[in-house]
Amino acid sequence: MGLRLTTAATASLLGNFEIVATALVALLAFKEGISPRLWGGILLVRSPALCCRWRMCQACVFRTVRC
After folding, report:
1. Is 34 in contact with 27 (CB distance < 8 Å)?
2. Residue 23 and residue 41: Cα distance in Å, rounded?
3. Domain limits at 32?
4. Phi, psi (5° rounding) for residue 20?
5. Residue 41 · residue 19 · CB < 8 Å
6. Is residue 41, in this structure, part of any structural domain at all?
7. Residue 31 domain-assigned (yes or no)
């Protein structure tokens, strides 16, 4: 039901966030080590979401989107 109520862009970003969540669970729950390469991957996965969030905030400031 939740995916029917969201946009394709949001669903895609949530799907890409899975690797970040898995890495954080491994780090926090299982004390796994996260290599610098994986941290770089996490940063690359999070970058588009942060960019979209920033654009959404900018749109709210300029009142082009209802927030």
Report:
1. yes
2. 10
3. 2-61
4. -65, -45
5. yes
6. yes
7. yes
What is the count of structural domains for the chain?
1
Cα distance between residue 21 and residue 42, in whole Å? 9
Minimal CA–CA distance to 46: which of 16, 22, 9? 16
Pair 30, 62: CB distance under 8 Å:
no
Q: Is the pLDDT of residue 25 over 90?
A: yes
Identify whether 66 is part of a domain.
no
pTM of the model: 0.59
Q: Give the helix ranges, DSSP H, for the chain.
A: 8-16, 18-30, 36-61
Between 37 and 45, name the one with better pLDDT: 37
For range 37-54, the mean pLDDT: 80
Report the alpha-carbon distance of residue 21 to residue 16 in Å, rounded. Answer: 10
Residue 23 covered by a domain: yes
